[in-house]
Amino acid sequence: MKLMPQEREQELTLVESKSNRRRRPRVGGRFGVIYSGMDKGQIMMGDGQVLNLSREGIGIRADRLLKPGMELALFIELPDSDDPLCISEALVSWVNKGRFGVSLRTLRLEDQNRLRFFLWAHEQQKPAQHSEDIDSTT
């Protein structure tokens, strides 16, 4: 599956906050995501923008209203490749207006390694910074 080209923000930053529940730093950025899941027995699809990600979860700005507890599949357009990162199982953990957070459930080993390498590479590049644009509840 090939994602529609989007304007990519090449500048990625590590994001931390005082109320951060994560055990590892998250990488902030702006890259496309397509998601799908079931809602009341109907298949629903949407697209959005990844705001931040870590090994445990992802913060997303989206075009559809979702509900906590929904299971989704995600296809993320990382800036290091033309092939999307496929996350077959993610669980919506919170929703706030046009944003939501998902916790990662199942990734193929190849995608798991790709995500780890992507995060590691960007953690090495810059020291942690605060961002007012990223919701601290992700």
List keywords for this structure.
globular, 1 helix, 138 residues, mainly beta, Thrombin, subunit H, 7 strands
Major sheet: size, sense and barrel closure?
6 strands, antiparallel, barrel
Strand order of the largest sheet: 2-3-4-7-6-5
Helicity, as a percent range: 10-25%
Shape: globular
Walk me through what this model shows:
With 138 residues, the protein is mainly β. It has one domain: predicted glycosyltransferase like domains (Thrombin, subunit H, Beta Barrel). The chain is 12% helix and 44% strand. It has 1 helix and 7 strands. A 6-stranded antiparallel beta barrel has the order 2-3-4-7-6-5. Strand 6 and strand 7 form a beta hairpin. The chain is globular and about 40 Å long. The two termini are 27 Å apart.
Brief sketch in words of this structure:
With 138 residues, the protein is mainly β. 12% of the residues lie in helices and 44% in strands.
Q: Layout of SSEs?
A:
Elements: E1 13-15, E2 26-39, E3 42-53, E4 57-62, E5 71-76, E6 85-96, E7 99-106, H1 109-125
Antiparallel strand pairs: 1-2, 2-3, 2-5, 3-4, 4-7, 5-6, 6-7
